[in-house]
């Protein structure tokens, strides 16, 4: 009886309530709707327009068609160096970060003493202002004199030239980026703690050893975390800016080996005031990011395992 | 019979003891092996801090000494007061704090309102808005960087703190996402009951949702505060007047034409890093939960 009366009442009331919800919804969301329009959508469109112009940020932009894009791909060697460095950094550092973060999280997840202390220590570098971190690293990685050279000197060797020569600068930055994986370690650890114990128990009953448990239980359950890590770190790697910029003063020294995409873009925009050119770079980066994330998303069904999502 | 069963029992007890012993040994070996790899890793992760701290207390002659000086002799405590005097440290500190606090307040208010709309009010178009919000997370900051700079330049805001504060008063995509996920876990019945009692949405937001969401709000506040405290590229683009500098720009001034003042620089680095590390120690749980929350939906 009561339900029948309620349903009978609904159509009239739902209409007015629906409108009220819409008004309230829009009102509560209004700061962000404004923010999206002014700080995201307008700039994205404007940057697309600038990318087809010559623009110094002061005088009105003049339309140049595809000139910026053509110049980037055909004439600009610094651009190609920046692309190479950035892709190198992404391709080398991301798999290493996944392996290290996953591995350390696995060990932290074993019920051992001092888990919280270890976790804290691994997380610390992500808290330090990048400026401070970069400056300490410059100091530590001073060739021949820095702390890093001490073990080499003990063996009478001068040690690598680290950030001061082209063949070492890139690997050194990859190494340094591995210091900042604390957030990922925490994510993997959270994922590991969610693995249902009965899966391991069932594997034990079947006589599975450590390796097969790792391969058939731990890894599949953690693939969503790896997926998340992969997506965010691709974006992070393509935006790699502050640390190399601080360490080299944005010069790309030595021999453009630390000239990353974001640094070259920033220099074009704010040092050379080639804002149109820099916008073309930004849009290429955007498109590239989109394609890569799309490929990762598409590939997800092949390797990402979602528990309970099998039907 | 009785003897038999006793024998079986003692046999069983012996087996049991042996197995227990074996397991203990195995566990011991395992934990030794784990610590043996965790400890060197911990050493590597702490190395920059230890070296920062050590250098901050060294007299000049020990910076590049070989073998390296780990514990300075004597402790040169004067590096700290000297560091604070060498640059206008407290001015930069005040600037950094002002920007960080104002941006954090703004992002908290705006993001929680928007998340409330997305999670708690059923209206057409909210899913679209949510997808748009997630999409902005994929957008490289370089795309919006130049037009935003032009906008702020035309507003006359360049070389002021406004471009570093005002955008945060209109919401942050990651925080909206995070708070929405959290708000959705709070039973809808609470809102419905309050609506029946005649409460309007603002009241429900303010007196029901916010008090129940303190952990999530705390996470947002900490993340944003630290992000602003560490921010480098924002101040780099917008601040050119030294009076306006934040600490991350001001710290460069230790590098003079005669080389870097490493002792002072490291002392200042310790001073910049320490507040955040302390914050982390006190609020560790909030941090860890917050990070896990961002990754939940993968």
Verbal overview:
The complex is a heterodimer of chains A (311) and B (298). In chain A, a hairpin with a 7-residue loop joins strand 1 (53-54) and strand 2. Chain A is globular and about 75 Å long. In chain A, helix 3 runs antiparallel to helix 10 (210-238). With 311 residues, chain A is mainly alpha-helical. Chain A folds into two domains: 2-50, no CATH class; 67-303, MetI-like fold. A two-stranded antiparallel sheet of chain A has the order 1-2. Chain A has helices spanning 2-50, 67-74, 77-109, 115-123, 130-140, 150-154, 166-177, 182-193, 197-205, 210-238, 242-248, 261-271, 275-303, and strands at 53-54, 62-63. With 298 residues, chain B is mainly α. Chain B folds into two domains: 2-46; 82-295, MetI-like fold. In chain B, helix 1 runs antiparallel to helix 13 (262-282), helix 2 packs across helix 13 and helix 10 (214-230) crosses helix 14 (284-295). Chain B is flat, with a radius of gyration of 28 Å. In chain B, strands 1-2 form a two-stranded antiparallel ribbon. The model of chain B has no long low-confidence stretch (mean pLDDT 89). In chain B, 73% of the residues lie in helices and 1% in strands. The chains are: A mainly alpha (311), B mainly alpha (298).
């Amino acid at each position: 009886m009561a339900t029948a009366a309620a349903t009978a009442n609904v159509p009239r009331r739902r209409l007015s309530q629906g409108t009220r919800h819409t008004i309230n919804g829009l009102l509560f969301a209004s700061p962000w709707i404004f923010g999206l329009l002014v700080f995201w959508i307008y700039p994205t469109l404007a940057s697309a327009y600038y990318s087809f112009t010559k623009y110094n940020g002061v005088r009105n932009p003049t339309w140049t068609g595809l000139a910026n894009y053509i110049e980037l791909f055909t004439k600009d060697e610094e651009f190609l160096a920046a692309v190479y460095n950035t892709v190198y950094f992404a391709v080398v550092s991301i798999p290493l970060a996944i392996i290290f973060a996953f591995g350390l999280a696995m060990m932290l997840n074993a019920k051992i003493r001092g888990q919280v202390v270890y976790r804290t220590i691994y997380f610390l570098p992500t808290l330090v202002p990048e400026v401070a971190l970069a400056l300490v690293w410059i100091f530590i990685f001073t060739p021949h004199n820095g702390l890093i050279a001490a073990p080499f000197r003990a063996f009478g060797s001068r040690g690598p030239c680290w950030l001061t020569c082209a063949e070492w600068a890139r690997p050194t930055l990859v190494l340094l980026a591995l210091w900042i994986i604390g957030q990922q370690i925490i994510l993997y650890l959270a994922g590991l703690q969610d693995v249902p114990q009965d899966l391991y128990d069932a594997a034990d009953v079947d006589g599975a050893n450590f390796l097969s448990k790792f391969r058939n239980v731990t890894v599949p359950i953690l693939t969503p975390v790896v997926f998340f890590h992969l997506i965010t770190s691709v974006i992070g790697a393509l935006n790699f800016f502050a640390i190399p910029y601080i360490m080299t003063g944005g010069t790309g020294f030595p021999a453009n080996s630390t000239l990353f995409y974001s640094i070259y873009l920033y220099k074009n925009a704010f040092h050379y005031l080639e804002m149109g050119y820099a916008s073309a770079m930004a849009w290429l980066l955007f498109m590239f990011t989109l394609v890569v994330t799309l490929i990762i998303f598409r590939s997800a069904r092949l390797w990402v395992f979602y528990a309970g999502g099998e039907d | 019979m009785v003897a038999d069963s006793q024998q079986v029992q003692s046999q069983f007890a012996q087996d049991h003891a042996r197995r227990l012993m074996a397991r203990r040994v195995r566990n011991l070996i395992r934990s030794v092996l784990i610590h043996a790899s965790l400890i060197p890793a911990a050493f590597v992760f702490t190395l920059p801090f230890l070296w920062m701290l050590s250098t901050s207390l060294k007299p000049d002659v020990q910076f590049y000494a070989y073998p390296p000086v780990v514990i300075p002799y004597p402790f040169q405590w004067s590096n700290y007061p000297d560091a604070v005097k060498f640059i206008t440290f407290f001015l930069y500190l005040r600037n950094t704090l002002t920007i960080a606090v104002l941006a954090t307040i703004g992002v908290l208010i705006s993001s929680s309102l928007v998340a409330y709309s997305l999670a708690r009010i059923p209206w057409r178009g909210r899913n679209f808005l949510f997808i748009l919000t997630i999409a902005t997370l994929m957008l490289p900051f370089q795309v919006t960087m130049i037009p935003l700079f032009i906008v702020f330049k035309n507003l006359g805001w360049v070389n002021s703190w406004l471009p570093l504060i005002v955008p945060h008063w209109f919401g942050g995509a990651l925080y909206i996402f995070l708070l929405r996920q959290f708000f959705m876990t709070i039973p809808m019945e609470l809102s419905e009951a309050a609506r029946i009692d005649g409460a309007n949405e603002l009241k429900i937001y303010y007196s029901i949702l916010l008090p129940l969401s303190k952990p999530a709000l705390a996470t947002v506040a900490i993340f944003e505060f630290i992000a602003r405290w560490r921010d480098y590229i924002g101040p780099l683009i917008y601040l050119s007047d030294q009076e306006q500098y934040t600490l991350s720009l001001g710290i460069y001034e230790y590098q003079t034409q005669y080389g870097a003042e490493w002792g002072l620089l490291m002392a200042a680095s310790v001073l910049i890093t320490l507040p955040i590390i302390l914050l982390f120690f006190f609020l560790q749980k909030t941090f860890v939960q917050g990070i896990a929350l961002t990754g939940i939906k993968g």
